[in-house]
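ok trying this again, last paste got cut off
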Amino acid sequence: MMNIETPARSPATAAAAVRAHALKVVRGRRTVLRELTFTVPRGQITGLLGPSGCGKSTLMRAVVGTQAKVTGTLHVLDHPAGTPALRSRIGYVTQDPSVYADLTVRQNLDYFAAVLTPGRGPAAARRREDVTRAIADVDLTSHADALAGDLSGGQRNRVSLAVALLGAPELLVLDEPTVGLDPVLRRDLWHLFHTLSAERGTTILVSSHVMDEAERCHRLLLMREGEILADDTPDALRDRTGSHTVEEAFLHLVDEANAARPHRGREPQLP
């Protein structure tokens, strides 16, 4: 069961979209997340960076409330993670596109918009506006009437992102949204992320195993083997380690961690 006790608030924690303390996930005999304590600031892009299998997806599922067997304290937008009141306030994009192949782009969004905000009259009009805006946000207006099953993998990923943008969520949780995209689409998506953060105040938690994307984030959580090696800005991480890039800083922190702790047998890593 999730520990739902409410910690004392301070100016720092009040400004956090996500607050975790001693967050742990054990799957069978394997410890997937190891006593994580961190915050995700509101209105910023926080990158969750680390190699495949280090626990990024598990952490994201915990944040959106879909991960089982979580212990510790985890509050999201000032509510315990998984609280029903958060469902309309969080947008979540998984690694695999979550759209219906036999529906068009617009039909997919119409369906999910109706689930989020049911009703007729003014509610229906707002849904239509919301759908049109989300399609434009991900640059799929020219493909709005195409079947999702006929789109490329990258385009289907963008449909999933458009679904997550419905209702203008306060927190977007994006699990490796740029995997498989060409450099132009990656650049355009990151431009969108910064627009959402700067103009709409959206908090974005985005995972990646591509270190050059770290430079695009306001803040970073660097993960390895279920642990957080660092929670800081890219500039601070480079300065702290005397590195030119975040990738160099990450490798430096890995070496530091290996030297500081006793040898531990490697456990199989899970996503």
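PB: full thing came through this time. The chain has eight helices and ten strands.
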